[in-house]
Amino acid sequence: MFRVIASKMIVPNMHLLTLAAPAVAREAKPGQFVILRAEEEGERVPLSLSDWDAQSGTITVVFMSIGSTTGRLALLAPGASIPTVVGPLGNATEIENYGTVVCVCGCYGIGSIFPIALALKRKGNRIITIMEARSSYLFYWEERLEAISDKIIHITRDGTKGHRGHVGRLPEILRGLEEPVDRIIANGCTFLMKRTSDETRPLGIKTMVSLNPIMIDGTGMCGVCRVTVGSVTRFACVHGPDFDAHQVDWEELLQRRKTYMPEEVVPLRTSRCEERHFRSQEGKS
Amino acid sequence: MSDPEKKTLDLRRREMPKQPPEVRRYNFNEVALGYSAESAVEEAKRCIQCKKPLCIPNCPVEINIPAFIKSIAERDFIGAVRILKDKNCLPAVCGRVCPQEEQCEKTCVFHKKGGQIAIGRLERFLADWEAQQRELEMPEILPSSGRKVAIVGGGPAGLTVAGDLIKLGHKVTVFEALHRMGGVLIYGIPEFRLPKVIVTREVEYLRKLGVELVTDFVVGKTRSIDSILEEFDAVFVGSGAGLPWFMEIPGENLNGVYSANEYLTRLNLMKGFLFPKYHTPVKSHRRVAVVGGGNVAMDCARSALRLGAESRIIYRRSREELPARLEEVENAEEEGVIFDFLTLPLRYIGDENGWVKAIECQKMELGEPDASGRRKPIPIEGSEVIYPLDAVVCAIGNSPNPLIGATTPGLKIGKKGNIEADEKTGATSREKVWAGGDVVTGAATVILAMGAGRFAARSIHEYLSSL
Amino acid sequence: MNLNSVSQILDFAIEKEEEAAQFYRDLAAKMGQQHVGEVFESFAREELEHKAKLIAVRQGNMTLIDSQRITDLKIGDHLVEIVLSPDLEYKQALIVAMKAEKAAFQLYQGLASSTDDANLKGILLTLAKEEARHKLRFEIEYEENFLREN
């Protein structure tokens, strides 16, 4: 069992969870992910690592509460335990001195891009961070990212902070920079990464994304996470999760992510009373 | 055999009761129900206790078969269990999924006359009988050697090594990537063929023997073999064949096209058939085609049936060549799985939303026998057929998982991605590293993996004793 | 190209074998996994053996035997084109080889049908059969390794 060290909602619907997982914390590298199970009957969900501390043996993930499993994870209180934390899985993000790197992030990607931006900064890159959200109150970890970014740019749907609009404004923002951009890294929902990819392809700037398809085991065994990259089928869990954005078949990825959409809401629609009643009986006996 | 015995030869194998097909095709409960004590004793009494038994050499883990059968015949079930468990730490599993018809039972002296002793059923009976007793008997464990062995993978090979080495006094830790021990026994073989409580029971037995079981630990990711060797005296790699093959035909990434691993893992490990009580979703498909003809294909097709789908097997060769156990083929046929023999999938056809809606196949014919006398299937031009469906499960095989090879410098990897290991000892190109089971041979059977584990355990023990 | 005599055809075929060997050697050098690189190396060596055989034929030390019909298992025909990337597996290496040999077979077949000279047609068809034999060798290896369950 893996103990919950900290759990909080950092902005509406966005949750931060810190878990005791010393073996994972010891090996973790930027860009890797873990698979969690919220309870014994739970499904396995992959979440990117947003932070870790090898010394205290803890890891931190940031996630949005959208389905039944993330909903359960969001309800965990410090001191509680979950049955599975396995990782670090996937390959680490390539960290080199590229020159100027633009980190585009939104949603949970604001959390997961932080260790990547930090490592890139330490390697000597100039870091320009572009954060996107529907509204200014949905930004988090701004101080953290400010501390390691040479420049930070905000985009909000409602214009409450920075540029108004969404990541589609990327080309003009990039044109407005005084310097050429050597690499772009995007973390966040599939739409944000796809749109970033669409916008940067004509500019010819190498763009890396961290893909988030459906997974079960995370070690290459089930093959459900297959994505087409440069006409080749890849398993995001073992060949990724980072891929060259301009090679990704985004339509297929979006399609495959929808596989279980109808089923995802079933647990939310059912009362689970059977389960709860049995549990309370077990508790009494 | 001598004449006086011949008069009393009883060639009637005692039948094992099963759930009737029309009932079992709607549930995930075990199909075969096992012998009663009476039938087991009757069956055991048929064994003539050959002076030079031919069954033992054909058992990959060298169980003293006539001896345990004799004990059953004498109603000494405890004694029989002791003999069985001396060589096999997973008897309830083997009694169910071993292909006995290809091994011990095939060389039984009664085989020619069709009355071979039902060794597998007797093994199963004993294991189940023991489980019903209040207390399990613990075997003798030798005094601690002070040596530590790490085992990578909690499947049949790894668990066998663990069981053997713990009894010899070594400290054993098993690292399993998934959240439950058992490997293919847990994620692959369905409940109706191998109830998971049985696997759990056998794993718990190892825990009671003192084996340390670590789940959610991916060797190669969470920790490398080299790092493990700083703490342990030896490592056994039994990480299995966990990289699914696809057909390499168009349309394979459409929604509704599964690898057998995914399909079975959702159902077995994640208990998707109990969705939403268990949270891993499983789609309810109406028509499912399973490509392949092995035991895994049968498991997928029979699972699909139980989930309420029309289920068909698409196999390139004819019925005679099916690599699945005959018993499982017959079970599938009785339950209503449709078989399309001599049929080859050419492509998957998708709808406008990216879901598979049909499969185009070509009919095959068997060509002239080749040098080895086998007849290979050859496509018949113009014989294309299209089957409408809403799911395809690709059950054509697996490669060894590349994770260990990729993260262990100096470990020799064969061209099929397998770890190269000595057949008799499991020794690899790396000192202190042994390997066995599917990661060495490619996908094979549970019992062959256990056999490899037994050989490796012997070799590891010799090495540890020499330190 | 000029393919007006048996020796010209043989020269052409020898060159093709060398090209094929080079193709496999280049692939071998690109492979990320050593064991797959070795597979392509072994394919390259086979092509060089074919080349040596043709050289022997040209020198008159050997005759090409027009053997019986070569079975076409057609295993590669419906498989997708393999994109040549550094992380190919053995399975995909075999598909690459099956398709390459099939293409070579079709090349000689095409050349044979475009000439009326019975002698030249004969040698081209024999070369086509040689390629068909090479393809069969890869098909059998593919079938025995990767289609056991199918």
Q: Can you describe this structure in just a few lines?
A:
The complex is a heterotrimer of chains A (285), B (467) and C (150). With 285 residues, chain A is α/β, with parallel strands linked by helices.
List the helices and strands and how they pair.
The complex is a heterotrimer of chains A (285), B (467) and C (150).
Chain A: E1 2-11, E2 14-20, H1 22-27, E3 33-37, E4 45-53, E5 58-64, H2 68-74, E6 81-82, E7 84-89, E8 100-106, H3 109-122, E9 126-133, H4 142-148, E10 151-156, E11 163-164, H5 170-176, E12 183-187, H6 190-200, E13 207-210, E14 226-229, E15 232-235, H7 236-239, E16 242-244, H8 250-257, H9 261-264, H10 266-269, H11 273-284
Parallel strand pairs in A: 8-9, 8-12, 9-10, 10-11, 12-13
Antiparallel strand pairs in A: 1-2, 1-6, 2-5, 3-4, 3-7, 4-5, 13-16, 14-15
Chain B: H1 3-6, H2 21-24, H3 37-45, H4 65-73, H5 77-87, H6 91-97, H7 119-132, E1 148-152, H8 156-167, E2 171-175, H9 184-187, H10 196-209, E3 212-214, H11 225-229, E4 234-237, E5 243-244, E6 257-259, H12 260-267, E7 287-291, H13 295-306, E8 310-314, H14 326-335, E9 338-340, E10 343-350, E11 356-369, E12 375-379, E13 385-388, E14 391-394, E15 398-399, H15 403-407, E16 433-435, H16 438-441, H17 446-466
Parallel strand pairs in B: 1-2, 1-4, 2-3, 4-16, 6-14, 7-8, 7-14, 8-9
Antiparallel strand pairs in B: 5-15, 10-11, 11-12, 11-13
Chain C: H1 6-30, H2 34-58, H3 90-113, H4 118-146
Description:
The complex is a heterotrimer of chains A (285), B (467) and C (150). Chain A is an alpha/beta fold and 285 residues long. Chain A contains eleven helices and 16 strands. Chain A has helices spanning 22-27, 68-74, 109-122, 142-148, 170-176, 190-200, 236-239, 250-257, 261-264, 266-269, 273-284, and strands at 2-11, 14-20, 33-37, 45-53, 58-64, 81-82, 84-89, 100-106, 126-133, 151-156, 163-164, 183-187, 207-210, 226-229, 232-235, 242-244. Chain A is globular and about 50 Å long. The model of chain A is unreliable at 280-285 (pLDDT under 50). Chain B is an alpha/beta fold. Helix content of chain B is 33%, strand content 16%. Chain B has helices spanning 3-6, 21-24, 37-45, 65-73, 77-87, 91-97, 119-132, 156-167, 184-187, 196-209, 225-229, 260-267, 295-306, 326-335, 403-407, 438-441, 446-466, and strands at residues 148-152, 171-175, 212-214, 234-237, 243-244, 257-259, 287-291, 310-314, 338-340, 343-350, 356-369, 375-379, 385-388, 391-394, 398-399, 433-435. In chain B, α8 (156-167) runs parallel beside α17 (446-466). Chain B starts with a helix and ends with a helix. Chain C has 150 residues and is mainly α. Chain C has a single domain (6-146), classed as Ferritin, core subunit, four-helix bundle (Ferritin, Up-down Bundle). Helix content of chain C is 69%, strand content 0%. In chain C, α1 runs antiparallel to α2 (34-58) and α3 runs antiparallel to α4. The model of chain C has no long low-confidence stretch (mean pLDDT 89). The chains are: A alpha/beta (285), B alpha/beta (467), C mainly alpha (150). Chains in contact: A-B, A-C, B-C. The A-B interface holds A 23-24, 27, 37, 41-44, 68-69, 83-89, 216-224, 226-228, 233, 238, 251-252, 255-256, 258-260, 263-264, 266-267, 270, 272, 274-275 and B 177-179, 187, 215-218, 221-223, 242-244, 246, 252-253, 255-256, 258-259, 261-262, 265-266, 270-271, 275-283, 353-354, 401-403.
